[in-house]
Amino acid sequence: MYTSVRLALKLVVAVVLFLSIVMPLTTLFLWSFAIKWYWPSPIPQELGTDYWLEALGLRRGLAIGAVSVTTALRYSIIIALITVIVTQLISIPASYALARYSVPYKPLLLFLFFMPQVFPLQPVYVNLMRLFYTYDLVGTIPGVVLAHMMPAMVFAIWINTATFKAIPPELEEAARASGAGALTTLLRITLPLAVPGLLASTVFVFLYSFDEFTGTFFIGLPYIQTLPMLLYSASGYNMQFASASAIVLLIISAAFMLLLERFLKAEYLGRIG
After folding, report:
1. Do 197 and 165 contact (CB within 8 A), yes or no?
2. Does residue 40 have a cis bond before it (omega within 30 degrees)?
3. What is the domain extent for residue 176?
4. Rounded distance, CA 146 to CA 215, Å?
5. Labelling 177: which of 51, 92, 169, 215 has CA 20 to 30 A away?
6. Predicted TM-score (pTM) of this structure
7. What's the distance, CA 257 to chain centroid?
8. Domain of 178: which CATH number?
9. Residue 272's pLDDT is what?
C-alpha cells in the first residue's frame, strides 16, 4: 500500500513537472523553428531556421518590423553592466557600514531599502517618468540605468550586508593588531573573504536588470529597446520570432543562474538581522 502511494505521488510530480516545465520549453523550441504551424496539427507542418536567421540579424522579411535580437541584446548587456557597476559602488560601502557599525535605525533603513519590492512598480515608474522628463532622462541609457538601480539596490544591499556580517570581525581586529592599516585590512582581509557573496549580489543585480521590462518600457521608450521589450512586442504579432528571442534570453539567464548557484551560500544570508 505504502509503495503504491509513493509511486502514485512520483507519477503526479512527474506529470506536473512535464506540464509546467518540459512541455512549455518544448513548445517554445518548436515555435522558434516553425515556418508553418496551423491548428489542429500537434507538430509544425514546416520547419526551418528562417526566423532564427532574422532574429540574429542575418535576414529580414518574415517578422515585419522586427528588430534584430543582437541589437536588443547589446542594449540589455550594456545597461545591465552599467547598473551592476554603479549599484555595487554605492551598495558595498553602505553594506559594510550597516554590517560593521552601529548605524541608528538600522532595521528601519534595511526595511526602507526593501520598500521598492513591496509596492507595484508600475505606478512608481509612471511617476518616475514624469520626473525624468524634467531632466531629459527619458529615452536614454542613463535614465534606464537609474530606473533599474532602484529595485536592484534591494538585492545588493541585503546580500552584501549579509556577506559582511558573515565575516568574523575578529579577523579584521587581528589584522589591525598586527599593524595593518584600515585600507590594507579591507583590501587583503575583508574583501577577499567577501568575494563569493559580492559575486552573488552582482549576478542578482545583473539578472534583474537584464530581465527587467516595466522600467525599461516607461523610461526607455522610444529609443531604448532591450531583449525583454523585443520579446514582449514580438509576441503580439510573430510567435516564431518571439520564441527565438525568448530562447536567447533564457539561455543567458540560465547561465548566470548556474553561476549564482555556485557562489550564493546559505551562510551569507543566515546572519542578517
Report:
1. no
2. yes
3. 69-268
4. 9
5. 92
6. 0.78
7. 9
8. 1.10.3720.10
9. 43
